[in-house]
TrEMBL record, chain A:
Subcellular location: Periplasm
Any one of the GO CC terms: periplasmic space
Keyword flag 4Fe-4S: yes
Protein name: Formate dehydrogenase (Quinone-dependent) catalytic subunit
From TrEMBL, chain B:
Region spans: Disordered: 1-22
Cofactor info, note text: Binds 4 [4Fe-4S] clusters per subunit.
Annotated residues for binding of [4Fe-4S] cluster 1: 57, 60, 63, 199
Binding site for [4Fe-4S] cluster 4: 132, 153, 156, 159
Protein name per UniProt: Formate dehydrogenase (Quinone-dependent) iron-sulfur subunit
Record: residues binding [4Fe-4S] cluster 2: 67, 180, 183, 195
Chief localisation class: membrane
Lineage: Bacteria, Pseudomonadati, Pseudomonadota, Alphaproteobacteria, Rhodobacterales
From TrEMBL, chain C:
Source organism per UniProt: Paracoccus homiensis
Family the UniProt entry places it in: Belongs to the prokaryotic molybdopterin-containing oxidoreductase family.
InterPro entries, per the entry: Mopterin_OxRdtase_4Fe-4S_dom, MopterinOxRdtase_cofactor_BS, TAT_signal, TAT_signal_bac_arc
Domain of life assignment: Bacteria
Name of the protein this chain belongs to: Formate dehydrogenase (Quinone-dependent) catalytic subunit
Keywords: 4Fe-4S, Iron, Iron-sulfur, Metal-binding, Oxidoreductase
SUPFAM superfamilies referenced in this protein's UniProt entry, alphabetically: Formate dehydrogenase/DMSO reductase, domains 1-3
Length: 811, 322, 199
């Protein structure tokens, strides 16, 4: 989230599209009902199903799964055509005026530079024209046909209301009514918020769905505003934290990158991250990359990381592919190329697509290690549960270790919420039996591995032997020790660069925040964006002062938010070019003539003048991007793409299937279904009574929603002879499931490109472990393909067939 | 909204853990089942109410979950029968239930998903209490809470017949009748009911009845501004008003909310019992009037025989004939 | 002292709940003889409170856990109730149907209580000690890494890439667990490293 849960109360219009906040985040959604009750705010829901969020909405419209980009480009087109644009914001705070290279263009659904063989684009032309002064060329009048604004106008021209109705199945009058409601929020004193979640991410073009709305929010001037923003409602309690901390194939904490093998040395790596400003006087904060990176290397390897050895750069792995993400790992596993696999609090057998493939892959491991507070299907993948897990145990040679961990109630530490608040919590219960903290387990695995290398030697032991491990009890590092390590400290006394007689931080002391980090090895810091969380003031994540000056919803003294306790990102953009709030009633920060101050921590240098330094300081341009240059693999603007499994051909290009640059493994390509065999569009989702696959283990939630079901329209039920509460079989190209049928008016057939499109809704909370009745997840059916940029699987749009079934599951 | 409605005098606070005396008890009883001549309490507690704003309800079932956890009940893990209601009905282990109805509004042609939290309405004029033949099994306090005292319950099921909202459920295990207590144990230490505390969107609120009615007015104003011309409060007069009240977007049609009664009143049968002499009524139910006899009687079994039920109905008919 | 607030503002929603201010109106404030009576005894009396946050979604609602026994005092503590924290700015004491039933997650019959091992081809788990389990893991890692670490690529560039072992990290563990996990996993050269954010 750019903003915070509590800030949603400040909005005038909530758009829930690509999510279902009332069901998935009920207590966060309360800020929507508060905005409605106290400000008269309106709620729009756009979803293939009439959800529980829709049940309290002011306006609902249906949409075909996987067609969101068309809808959003349609709204942008409507706003541009009807002058619903926050012009001062767009001219100054976005890259609308930037001129793009002559070579860039779009036709037949594809941008310039497509290479079908490589399934990739040559993105050379997707960039700005650079002038002789080294800066990007701009046309502040927005007249130049090559400026971003005019290219965008041309790009969205196709997305007329009729086009939207045809592709999305959204009736034109409903679409136009939504445009009107959204368009009102282009006024500087009207603000809209976007709340979305997996309904946008779990597509082969998920990142472009989100881009679409982000662009719209920029055009309306709603980014950085109280009550505005792009609010990704993260799924799990610390998924934000684990992402921040870089527990991904290609990341280093704080959104730094693991090098690729094209960056063989430190100099190559670091010089590619110079990030010089593209416009005069701009901040381009990523110029500090070397400080964060060197401090990270010092946190990892301490004295073994020196200027002479390029901070132990050779210890880091160098990637040969963009990522070894989960999909790639299971692909490799299936082909016998993975021997040992760890699942720490993760149940991939129900979380990733094509369960049959997952089972096959896990069966080829030598050893699977599962750490979890609960029994998981993954740990028990080799157990036969009749039709619910029909495996031949004896044939599976994988050894499995199931290790009991503590849960939240028994451990201490911080979780990062969707609004980036790091909230400390305390243990209140005794762990059951022999369950141990994850920190104890990880420490003991590491210490034993290190001892083997110490005793036996082995291949390249240096990064293991030299890893910093200076904890009081090496086998159980405390949460405090680890938090302090993430915050960072001075290894040598650090002096002010402008005044070397002033000490910034003494050797051995915690740094105040990341502004004190250095690139000369004098500081260490595990995760720069968290710096400030536990400094010499103590544990700021444990702060519990719930006062809220100005009733602004910021709560600056409750816990700690990254970065530097800022609650709304890009908040400089809440004020105009003179530094005055666009809406005085929604003041966040303002320019006093000398500095920035207000209810939030300014997202700009406190003395940076408002008419000189533009608000988007993390971008080289100083401006936000309507045109993303070459930063996304599938295009600098979002363009309509069909799901890999769709009842429709892409209307721009009937040869194009799915996202033209998504990575597809050969076996999986052969398993994509077509609509002649599988005529119905399926989509997966969560129900409010359950949390993923966890709450089926507890009796209360199991009683509230006990059994796996699918939802279909009355029309499809009639067509197929399916009775309400009857048993059905749902099958696709990769598997089959049996479920109860919920026949509902909340799903209605849509007409798209002249075809009737029926939607089958498949919730995902059942498996073969726990208190609830045994069932399946939608992943028995879904295709093994991910988003082109981040490899998030396409769970939200795929093809199935359905029939009544009298067959009783044998279990 | 302008904030015209007074804020309720209440705001959420965490439960106490220090020992605390109960804020009300037997001295505050205003009605006790099958007991005449109850002395009038020496004080009148402020009337309380739970407000359920159906227009803010997202049907998440947090109320059900919190209810189970607070009251330490164990609802059965059932099956899906093609609807979202689970359990499928109120049970002795599920005192509250979200009921879902899909209603196509003929005026707009739009679908509305009407979700109503069902449970005891805590009637000012409680039919269950009036029907109950077991002395002290059902009580009403002067703050409006109607509570079942299980030690005194004989499991006859008359409360079910007497309830215009079909709320109480008899346990097959211990043959006692169960329903929402309005979390009398929480209210007694200054806390709201568990469902109201949990409710994510504050569709359920709790406070004095006056405050709840004022809050309801504010909500109705908001709903009317959004085109719900018939928004209104449900506080039915037929049972003397209730201590659980609803805000409905379509208050002119309570029946569309999973058969919420249009005009609930105590069953004529029960009114009949009330109307005839106490002795006759008790005799018709096969229950001798004298308290001393009750224990012996109850030990025989908890069921009222069908013939006794018929006899009671006849008695009512006879009375109506007069 | 984690139950203490550094400073408390009285949070409220456009709605309600009962507060101390209203107790008088409901019959409180007078000293009364304990009336055994009808009303069930308040079950949280004399329990220990601990502040925590809900481990499910990313709203991160504040919760208070009520236990018999106090872990901070070195006692065995049994959690007997969990309720929303009314002082928390986001949830204001509310909880969803999952959060309201958190106690049942802590006490789920399928909570794991001891390490278990499944041998190749076996149909059941068997018990194993922590020592045996950890030694087995370390041995398997060492052997696999020594056999399969890619030290250099075809161009002779040092790539220190271990692709035959993978690690999926959790989504509800603390930052502190995550950081320790990061250090341990990265130091080995594992590149098949991912977390729930991928989904």
């Amino acid at each position: 989230m750019t903003n915070a849960w509590t800030d949603i109360k400040n909005t005038d219009l909530v758009v829930v599209m690509g999510g279902n906040a009332a069901e998935a985040h009920p207590c966060g959604f309360k800020w929507v009902t508060e905005a409605k009750a106290n400000r008269g705010a309106k709620l729009i829901v756009v979803d293939p199903r009439y959800t529980r969020t829709a049940s309290v909405s002011d306006f609902y419209a249906p949409i075909r799964p996987g067609s969101d980009i068309s809808f959003l480009m349609g709204v942008i087109r409507w706003c541009m055509e009807n002058d619903k644009v926050q012009w001062e914001y767009v001219r100054n705070y976005t890259n609308a005026a930037f001129l793009v290279k002559e070579g860039f263009g779009w036709s037949d659904g594809l941008f310039t530079g497509y290479d079908e063989e490589k399934r990739d684009y040559d993105k050379e032309s997707w960039d700005y024209q650079i002038g002789e002064d080294g800066y990007a060329r701009i046309d502040p009048t927005l007249q130049d046909p090559r400026c971003v604004w005019n290219l965008l106008k041309a790009h969205v021209e196709a997305y007329t209301p009729e086009f939207v109705e045809n592709i999305c199945g959204t009736p034109k009058d409903k679409f136009l009514q939504i445009c009107e409601m959204i368009g009102e929020c282009s006024a500087p004193d009207r603000v809209m918020t976007s709340m979305y979640a997996l309904g946008w991410t779990q597509h082969s073009k998920g990142a472009q769905n989100i881009r679409g709305m982000a662009m719209l929010q920029l055009i309306l001037g709603n980014i950085g505003m109280r009550g505005g923003g792009m609010n990704a409602l993260r799924g799990h309690s610390n998924i934000q934290g684990l992402t921040d901390l870089g527990l991904m194939s290609n990341l280093i904490p704080g959104y730094l990158n693991i090098p690729t093998e094209k960056e063989p040395d430190w100099q190559t790596y670091i010089s590619a991250r110079g990030f010089k400003p593209l416009r005069p006087n701009q901040t381009s904060y990523w110029q500090n990359y070397p400080k964060f990176m060197v401090s990270f290397m010092k946190a990892m390897w301490g004295d073994a990381a020196t200027a002479e050895n390029d901070w132990a750069y050779h210890y880091l792995p160098k990637l040969d592919v963009p990522t070894y993400d989960v999909l790639r790992m299971f692909e490799l596993m299936k082909h016998g190329q993975i021997n040992l696999y760890f699942c720490q609090g993760f149940n991939p057998l129900l979380s990733f697509p094509n369960r049959a493939k997952l089972t096959e892959a896990l069966s080829r491991l030598k050893l699977l290690v599962v750490m979890d507070p609960l029994e998981t299907e993954t740990a028990h993948f080799w157990e036969n549960h009749g039709i619910h897990n029909d495996v031949d145990s004896a044939a599976i040679q994988t050894e499995v270790l199931e290790l009991p961990t503590t849960c939240f109630a028994e451990d201490e530490g911080a979780l990062v919420n969707s609004g980036r608040w790091l909230q400390w919590h305390w243990a209140g219960g005794t762990p059951p039996g022999e369950a141990r903290h994850d920190t104890w387990i990880m420490a003991n695995i590491f210490l034993r591995l290190r001892k083997l290398y110490q005793d036996e030697g082995g291949v390249f032991p240096d990064p293991i032997l030299n890893l910093t491990w200076d904890y009081a009890d090496p086998s159980e590092p405390t949460p405090e020790e680890l938090a302090r390590e993430m915050n960072g400290r001075a290894l040598k006394t650090v002096y002010d660069a402008k005044d070397p007689s002033t000490v910034l931080v003494e050797a051995g002391k915690q740094v105040k925040n990341f502004t004190q980090l250095q690139d000369d090895g004098s500081t260490m810091c595990g995760c720069w964006i968290y710096s400030g969380c536990w400094n010499e003031d103590g544990n700021n994540m444990a702060r519990r002062d719930n006062s809220d000056p100005g009733d602004a919803g910021m709560f600056l003294n409750w816990s700690f938010a990254w970065p530097v306790n800022r609650r709304i990102l890009y908040n400089r953009a809440s004020a105009d070019m003179q530094g005055k709030p666009w809406d005085p009633d929604r003041k966040l920060i303002e320019w006093t003539g000398e500095k920035w101050e207000g209810y939030d921590v300014p997202d700009i240098g406190v003395t940076s003048k408002p008419d000189e330094v533009m608000p988007f300081i993390m971008n080289q341009e100083g401006a936000s991007r309507l045109f993303t240059r070459g930063m996304m693999r599938d295009g600098p603007f979002p363009t309509h793409m069909e799901p890999f499994e769709s009842p429709l051909k892409n209307v721009f290009n009937d040869k194009m299937r799915g996202n033209p640059v998504s990575r597809v493994f050969a076996d999986d390509a052969a398993q994509f279904a077509t609509s002649d065999e599988f005529p119905f569009v399926a989509t997966s989702y969560r129900l409010t009574e359950h949390f993923h696959y966890w709450t089926k283990h507890n009796k209360v939630n199991a009683s509230l929603q006990p059994e796996f079901f699918v939802e279909i329209s009355e029309e499809l039920a009639a067509e197929k002879g399916i009775a309400k509460g009857g048993r059905v079989r749902v099958w696709g190209k990769r598997g089959e499931v049996w479920a109860k049928a919920v026949v509902t008016k909340r799903i209605k057939p849509m007409i798209c490109d002249g075809k009737t499109v029926h939607v089958v809704g498949i919730p995902l909370h059942w498996g073969f472990k726990g208190a609830a009745k045994k069932g399946w997840g939608p992943n028995s059916l879904t295709p093994f393909v991910g988003d082109a940029n981040v490899e998030t699987p396409e769970f939200k749009a795929f093809l199935v067939n359905i029939e009544p079934s009298t067959e009783e599951p044998v279990a | 909204m302008s904030g015209t409605a007074p804020q309720p005098t209440t705001a959420a606070a965490n439960p106490p853990v220090q020992p605390m005396e109960a804020g009300f008890g037997t001295r505050d009883l205003v009605r006790v089942s099958a007991t005449a001549d109850l002395p009038a309490p020496d004080r009148q507690l402020t009337k309380l109410a739970k407000l359920i704003d159906v227009s803010k309800c997202i049907g998440c079932k947090a109320c059900q979950s919190a209810c189970v956890e607070w009251n330490d009940t164990t609802p059965e893990i059932g099956e899906n029968v093609g609807v979202y209601e689970n359990p499928h009905d109120l049970t002795p282990d599920m005192f509250t239930l979200m009921r879902f109805s899909e209603w196509e509004n003929p005026a707009t042609n739009e679908l509305e998903w009407l979700i109503r939290k069902d449970g005891c309405m805590h009637c000012e004029d409680p039919g269950c209490l009036k029907a109950c033949p077991a002395p002290g099994a059902i009580v009403q306090y002067s703050n409006g809470i109607v509570d079942f005292i299980h030690d005194n319950c004989i499991g006859c099921g008359y409360c079910v017949t007497g309830c215009p909202f079909d709320i109480p459920r008899i346990s097959k295990t211990d043959h006692k009748s169960y329903k929402c207590t309005l979390c009398s144990d929480r209210v007694a230490v200054g806390q709201g009911p568990a469902c109201a505390k949990a409710c994510p969107t504050k569709a359920i609120t709790f406070g004095t009845k006056d405050d709840m009615l004022a809050l309801a007015d504010d909500r109705i104003e908001d709903l009317k501004s959004r085109g719900y011309d018939n928004a209104g409060v449900y506080d039915p007069e037929g049972v003397g008003g209730t201590h659980v009240i609803y805000v409905l977007h379509h208050a002119d049609k309570p029946g569309i909310y999973s058969d919420l009664p249009e005009n609930p009143r105590i069953s004529p049968i029960v009114e009949g019992w009330k109307g005839v002499t106490k002795t006759a009524g008790m005799a018709a139910m096969g229950v001798a009037a004298a308290g001393a006899l009750l224990m012996g009687l109850f030990s025989r079994g908890n069921k009222v025989e069908a013939e006794e039920e018929v006899a009671a109905e006849r008695l009512v008919r006879d009375r109506e004939d007069i | 002292m984690n139950i203490d607030l550094s400073r408390r503002s009285f949070l409220r929603l456009a709605g309600a709940g009962v507060a101390a201010t209203s107790l008088g109106a409901m019959g409180f404030g007078e000293a009364e003889a304990a009336e055994a009576a009808h009303v069930r005894a308040f079950k949280l009396t004399t329990t220990t409170e601990t502040r925590n946050t809900c481990p499910y979604c990313s709203v991160a609602c504040g919760i208070i856990m009520y236990s018999e026994g106090d872990v901070k005092a070195g006692e065995t503590a049994e959690i007997m109730h969990i309720e929303g924290d009314a002082d928390h700015p986001t949830n204001r004491g509310t909880l969803c149907p999952k959060g309201a039933a958190l106690k049942d997650f802590v006490k789920a019959p399928t909570r794991l209580t001891r390490p278990r091992y499944r041998a190749a081809g076996a149909t059941e788990f068997q018990d194993i000690t922590w020592d045996q389990a950890l030694d087995k893991i370390a041995r398997a890692m060492k052997d696999d890494r020594d056999a399969n670490l890619v030290q250099t690529n075809e161009d002779g560039v040092a790539v220190n890439r271990w692709t035959t072992t993978g690690f999926l990290a959790a989504s509800a563990t603390t930052n502190e667990t995550a950081w320790l996990t990061y250090k341990a996993v990265r130091s080995t050269g594992i590149v098949g490293f991912d977390n729930q954010a991928r989904v």
